[in-house]
Design brief:
The protein is an all-alpha fold. The protein has 13 helices and no strands. The protein has helices at 3-16, 22-31, 40-55, 59-68, 77-90, 97-106, 115-129, 135-144, 153-168, 171-180, 189-202, 209-217, 220-241. Helix 9 packs across helix 10. The radius of gyration is 23 Å and the shape is globular. The termini are far apart. The mean pLDDT is 90.
Length: 242
């Protein structure tokens, strides 16, 4: 590429996406190198304007979406972006304009997924395994945490659901926990859920919905404080019993 053209394109990206320094530019380009081969006038700017108008975003908001998922600028507008946003509003999820805007701001990568191979199977899994009665309940559930559609059924959703069922000892209670607090799906099974469950049992905690929600959602600092508080209570009880 002509050095002058490259410089103009980098300047455009820096100004349009509000990139503060060279390190941000490098990071952005590394995550989506083929952007440099796209025309600003024919591809990049028209696509950014379309996304901005379609979702009613200001400059800062559209910039954050693109920085979160740079590959959005490589996705075909007519073949993918436009039909995907229409599907999200017209089919099973039936997102309102406001819901769609929030959904894409939180999980722009969903626009790259296959409806038939990724989104539909995931929605069907939620409906079947979490006893969601209809599309309205699916809408309510998924809107609580749009990144739910990012998860793999085999590698994330199925083993995580099984973990909660086994831990709490009741499938209905596990489903209630997950439908009320979908973010419980987001915790790593190996790095958070299993180790903390062992610690909770060792500390003598009652393993119920409230305990499992703390295990899944507490920060490390909050969890350590929770364990320390429980240990002090257990020690106090033992002293009183002697």
């Amino acid at each position: 590429m002509n050095p002058d053209k490259l410089e103009r394109k980098l300047l455009y990206l820096q100004q349009r996406l509000k990139l503060d320094d060279d390190s941000q530019i490098r990071k952005f380009i590394m995550e989506s190198t083929s952007i440099l081969n796209s025309s600003v006038q024919k591809n990049l700017e028209p696509k950014i304007i379309w996304i901005q108008k379609r979702l009613d975003l200001n400059d800062d908001e559209v910039s954050k979406i693109i920085l979160k998922f740079p590959r959005i600028l490589q996705i075909s507008l007519k073949k993918k972006l436009e039909p995907m946003m229409d599907w999200l509003q017209q089919e099973r999820l039936r997102l309102t304009d406001g819901q769609l805007r929030t959904f894409i701001r939180k999980s722009p990568q969903v626009l790259s997924y296959s409806i038939e191979q990724k989104i539909q199977p995931t929605l069907k899994w939620f409906q079947k395994n979490l006893d969601l009665k209809d599309d309205a309940e699916i809408n309510t559930f998924v809107n609580k945490l749009p990144t739910l559609l990012d998860y793999s059924i085999k590698n994330n959703l199925e083993p995580t659901l099984e973990f909660y069922i086994e831990s709490i000892g009741n499938k209905g209670d596990a489903i209630t926990l997950l439908t009320k607090s979908p973010r419980a799906f987001g915790a790593s099974l190996e790095n958070r859920l299993k180790p903390r469950l062992d610690e909770a049992k060792e500390a003598g905690m009652v393993i119920d919905q409230r305990c499992l929600l703390r295990i899944a959602t507490y920060t490390e600092k909050m969890w350590r404080a929770n364990l320390e508080h429980r240990s002090k209570e257990t020690f106090k009880v033992k002293i009183e019993e002697t």
